[in-house]
Amino acid sequence: MMDNQINIFDQDESTQSFESWLQDICFRVLDENTTEHKHVVIRKNKGYNALIYRNRIVCTYLFAKDKNWVNFPIRYAKHLPSDSIFPQKVKSDKVTVSVDGEDQAKQLAASYAAALNEAIDTGPREYSCCSRYQECSDAGKCVNPYPDIAIECRYKINLKHGKNFYKS
Fold this sequence. Notes:
- There is one protein chain.
- The radius of gyration is 17 Å and the shape is elongated.
- By secondary structure, the protein is α+β, with helices and mostly antiparallel strands.
- It has a seven-stranded antiparallel β-sheet, covered by helices on one side.
- It has six helices and seven strands.
- Strand 4 (about 55-65) and strand 5 form a beta hairpin.
């Protein structure tokens, strides 16, 4: 792993930092999607951090004395609460949500989860389905035991959204 990245799943659980709290959300979403945890990292950049799923930015954030914000790419704006709850500045490529700090940023839990879910659903896929399509159809979810193969399957996205083409 590059020096400017940390695996958010190797955090010390004795302190509930924003990163470890975000880890809990990511664990749940990744597990629900049969996706390995290694595909999510927090990249520490100069001036802000970024939550990244398979090289796609899910959000960026900064908590400092005089400015605190969370940015979401514009494609995830639909997952944010109303502007009256959290002041937002919309630009062509992102939405900046002003927060008072980490505690208030945690109130966006549903937004982080929804954005990560969308990143998983809309990511590139190598194939439509594998040889286990019938087993997956019967189970209503991906049952492929190999996560690196399962992550590339488009059919599991259909199953997740209730589209079951092969149920016996």
